[in-house]
Amino acid sequence: MARAFFRLQKFLRRTQFLLFFLTAAYLMAGSLLLLQRTRLVIQQGSRGTSLNQALAVPDEMAGVGIADPRAVQNPRPGARLLVGTDALQEPALDQRHSPRWLTSRNSELRQLRRRWFHRFISDQEPMQTAGFKAMKHVAEHKGTYMGCFTDDSRERTLKGAVFYDLRKMTVAHCQEACAERAYTYAGLAYGAECYCGNTLPATASKPEECNSECKGEKGSVCGGVNRLSVYRVEELRAGARRRRNVIYRGCFRAPENLTDTFPASLIQPNLTVEMCSEFCSKKEFPLAVIRGQECYCGYPTGRFSLRDGADGLRCTRTPNSSSTAEGKYCLVYQTPVQDTRCTDRKFLTTKSKVFVALSSFPGAGNTWARHLIEHATGYYTGSYYFDGALYNKGFKGEKDHWRSRRTICVKTHESGKTEIEMFDSAILLIRNPYKSLMAEFNRKYAGHLGYATDRNWKSKEWPDFVNSYASWWASHVLDWLKYGKRLLVVHYEDLKQSLIPKLKEMVEFLNVTVTEDRLLCVENNRDGNFKRSGAKQKDFEPFTQEMKDLINRYILTVDEALRGRNFTGLPREYVPR
After folding, report:
1. CA-angle at 471, arms to 568 and 454, nearest 5°
2. What would the pLDDT profile of 67-85 be if each residue is shown by its tens digit?
3. Structural domain boundaries of the chain?
4. What is the DSSP code (8-state) at residue 315?
5. Residue 294 β-bridge partners
6. Residues 359, 473: Cα–Cα separation, whole Å
7. Where is the WSC domain (predicted)?
8. Where are the alpha helices (DSSP H) in 47-106?
9. Strands 247-253 and 329-334
10. Distance from CA of residue 381 to its chain's centroid?
11. In the chain, which end has fewer C-beta atoms inside a 10 angstrom radius, N or C?
12. Which pLDDT band, with edges at 50, 70 and 90, does 131 fall under?
């Protein structure tokens, strides 16, 4: 018996040693294979292989598709579950995951992924010049290539319109966008930025300094670091489909001295709206003002703010008349040119001492509020999440870590004591829950600018969505009222109706001083790039009576809580329907 036991023990010892040896051999083989692949990648990179190939990143994860884990986890919210953000479109996860669990889980992984994304983007922009000698500037482009020019952000010549697309920028896309806005030149920089204008940059650079590959078009050059690839697109303008036509702004009382108010003017017999708009567009002014046979170009200013419109009959022009209402009134039109007095933005030069949140329920207009704040203050806003679509369109604070304190405020949809007390103060943006729920449902199923289909609205998903999100709308406000240290409550409807006064309050709360002309510029560019085109009317009422009863109870609860904290109650349009 003892001998049998000894043999068994000896066998087990040999087996244990064998398993240990096999495990060690497996790990060594894997390490050698990894080193071999790494050396192969480095060799390929030295021969000009793109960074996407060198890192072996799948197509669906390349560029902005690589998101922070906070933007991937999207559980179905309960009364206080906060992950259905503007940046997310993934299906909901299990309800057992609480927001506190989401914000604490894998924190190190989040930072590593975000740091990796930073390096990935920054390393791609300054591409090696060796691999771009064979690139053609005019292979499939209809514009005329003018050359490589220096791009000075402080004295930028092409500043008539500016937009970004980190993922899909092409030369043709930039050319068409500038032509549609009636500009003469289109310039591309950093592989992803497009600038429009009517004046060619003054300082030319060496052709090889424009060496950044277009993000959406392999083999094409889109400028470089502080360098612009410039194209003349005037010949494209005649056939270009206008992105936005000349917009009638209304009839206004003319200022006492039009010549002093407007920097450019033209007197033309038989003057038409098209003539005046074309003249002002070439001068890069957003307003075309007509009084009889006189055309004036300029911006909205304190002397001509476009706030007090007059009866349109006062501006009626007859064939034999040379003026409108004896010269006291004028017609005002918006040209395709962008008002650029407030488009310059940057990160804070020093870290902010006050950590400010821009908090709202999803669908309450947080992206629009960020657009207004950025253009009013001149500083980028940050985000607790990462949304590639927003970053592509110019919200550069999306890529910055939300706790960097380099942005003027940070977007968040979070609630709960821990998440709220991280911030020193907050702008709490509240919108009618009926409108917020519909806006977030549209975003969830059709993106920032689309609309959910009738099939979505009539499916079981809609009532489930309302039951989950309606309570979240209420609990979000209640939590911020309870745990917020210093709050400025802004109602979306008030901001929309009285933009300048409310925006002034927000800017003062952020401790930033701005000029009246800059605020008027913001008003002139108030919509931004994420406004749904019109209100898509449905031939049915999406809210059942049961849904209305539920939402109305939350409205009354939030209204009472606001008044209890000495804030203004909810606007009258929130009153139960």
Report:
1. 105
2. 343 443 343 344 333 333 3
3. 143-239, 244-317+326-334, 356-531+541-574
4. G
5. 267, 291
6. 12
7. 142-234, 245-342
8. 51-54, 99-104
9. antiparallel
10. 10
11. N
12. very low
Give the DSSP letter string of 532-554. -SS----SS-SS-HHHHHHHHHH
Select from 35, 336, 331, 338 the least CA-distant residue to 158: 338
Tell me which of 329 and 84 has the higher pLDDT: 329
Lowest mean pLDDT among 12-21, 189-198, 348-357, 499-508: 12-21
Q: Cα–Cα distance between 350 and 264 in angstroms, integer? A: 39
Measure CA 2 to chain center: 78
Pairing mode of beta strands 161-164, 193-197: antiparallel
CA-nearest of 537, 565, 549 to 433 is 549
The CATH-assigned architecture of domain 356-531+541-574 is: 3-Layer(aba) Sandwich (3.40)
Token pair 């007390």 is at which residue? 421
Contacts with 439 (C-beta within 8 Å, 6 or more apart), sequence order: 363, 364, 365, 431
133: its two tokens: 């000698």
Prediction pTM value: 0.68
Residue 341 near residue 518, CB atoms below 8 Å: yes
Backbone angles phi, psi at 7, to 5 degrees: -65, -40
CA distances from 245 to 268, 277, 492 (A): 22, 10, 28
Rounded to a whole number of angstroms, the CA Rg of the chain reads 29
Residue 520 exposed, middle or buried by CB count within 10 Å (0-12, 13-18, 19+): buried
Instruction: Classify burial at 255, counting beta carbons within 10 Å of its beta carbon; exposed 0-12, middle 13-18, buried 19 or more.
Output: middle
pLDDT one-digit tens code per residue, 154-194: 777 787 777 777 778 899 888 888 887 778 889 999 888 89
- Separation between Cα atoms, residue 509 and residue 354, nearest integer Å: 11
- Angle, nearest 10°, between helix axes 545-564 and 433-446? 120
The helix (run of H) or strand (run of E) holding residue 471 is: helix 461-483
Enter the tokens of residue 321: 């008349």
The closest alpha carbon to 381, from 346, 409, 353, belongs to 409
Q: Decide the pairing of beta strands 213-214 and 217-221.
A: antiparallel
Identify which of 322-326, 331-335, 390-394 has the greatest average pLDDT: 331-335
The pLDDT-based confidence of 312 (bands split at 50, 70, 90) is confident
